[in-house]
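Suppose you are handed a protein chain with no further information: no name, no annotation, nothing but its sequence. What can you learn? This example shows the usual starting point.
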Amino acid sequence: MASAQPQVARKTADTSRASTTTFAADPHLTFSVEANAVYIWHGWIKYFADPTPDLQVNFTAPTGALGEWHQIAAGSGATTSNTTGQSVRLESNDIVSGRNWYGVSDWDLGAVIHGTLRVGSTAGTFALQWAQASSSATATILYTDSWISMQRIA
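A reasonable first move is to predict its three-dimensional structure. Written in structure tokens, the prediction is:
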């Protein structure tokens, strides 16, 4: 099969979540995926997360789907802006395994994400889910113009 044209999901509005640690799909960063297909994807997520709640990110995929994802995002110890940089998270994760992205109290952060999704015999939805890692009244925000591009390759 020839590669299909990429699908792109872009956030058209900020989404704020406060006082919740329950994962929910982002209203903009979702895709319909076909059974027995293979996809590659990448994106950029701009976010604000105070150091108390941080941000936890996960993906949903149809039953039986397999794959891996990777992020370059703020790591442990990121608490305030500074001129010496921050630690970063670089793990490779199972497609439905979540990770915390750390927050800082005085500036916005970005994360680069990419991965592979192998859909089994069940079509469905692939979506970025997120919530606060620790419940806080200070809202965690995913910003407008964050995006994910997904392309079927088999």
